[in-house]
Amino acid sequence: MSILQRLRQMDIRKGVVSLATGAGAIYLLYKAIRAGIRCKPPLCSASPICIARKCPRPGERALLGVPTPQASGVGGPKGLAIERERHGRDSGELRRLLTSLECKQDEYAKSMILHSITRCVYLLESEASACTNEDIALVGSMLDDKDNSVKIQALNTLKAFSGIRKFRLKIQEHSIKVLELISTIWDSELHISGLRLLNNLPLPDFVHPQLRRVMPALMEILQSDYILAQVQAVRLLSNLAQKNDLLYDILNCQVHSNFLNLFQSTQPGSLLFEVLVFAERLSEGRSSPHYRAVKWHYNQQSVHEALFGDDSRLADRLLALVIHPEEDVQIQACKVIVSLQCPQDVGVRPSCPPSHSCFNPGE
């Protein structure tokens, strides 16, 4: 058989295989479309729980591209609430949910309604902006519910509303309550929701006394084994470390003997980066002229002794992190090293003074 004949046979085989493959793909596509047509959404009433289920998470509608039926009044047109808002029409969905929340509901229903309100605040911007401070107060009142799941959903809803500037002052009024929940209830999901809310708000000065009282709880969360809660806790502590009247309270807060394990290279990169930012803020704060003007005394097991004391092994941890696989961790570790070597007011001095440092001259 000649080469030309073999090539022709191969072309025929390729054509047959391609045809079979194409036919198979078309058949599978047909089955998928047919299954999608046959799968009809279940009939649902206009109850609060059903309304909650109809409001997807932020971005779900865009990802799915599937229109969802919306509960509406008698004779009202059906369609996506977000589509109505896009055309300048108020769907009324968010208002219905808030009205339902005012009625007496069981814990599960309240949790579902709050969850749906959170979704709608992110999706229906104009309707969310049209809400009032009374609506914020209603959501805030759910923080007193006996059920933790309701508290968590209320925190998430307040976090969603905190993205709207005009509600921030009203939400700040609940800061002390949020700090109380974080410090008295040991629940990782509640910690995450509460800390995310606090990290999204400028904390006013009147909250500082409460922050001092909950500082040990924040340190305990930081030293827990739940990464998401740890990250949120250390972000809050990093922000508080920039407050002159809170810096000593943080540095003198008692920690576990293995506190420096937070700086081990085996920790997740997201947590490592945040604890390094925290260490840099503390180092800069304690090196500032304002802070050095006072002679401070620290507990033996304090954050200060763990990070900056004579027996601290922070330098070893930092040197190991300089070669960390993640670049942002490397850079942040270098920033901490620089802050430890030179005081913050180095800009007005010709060189760094020969003061105590975690690093030996040879390093």
Automatic annotation (TrEMBL):
SUPFAM superfamilies per record: ARM repeat (SSF48371)
Residue ranges of domain Armadillo repeat-containing in the record: 93-289
InterPro entries named among the record's database cross-references: ARM-like, ARM-rpt_dom, ARM-type_fold, Armc12
TM helices/strands, residue ranges: none
Annotated GO biological process: positive regulation of cell growth; sperm mitochondrial sheath assembly
GO CC terms in record: nucleus
Domain of life of the native organism: Eukaryota
Pfam families: Arm_2 (PF04826)
Protein's name according to its UniProt entry: Armadillo repeat containing 12
Organism, as annotated: Sus scrofa
Gene it is expressed from: ARMC12
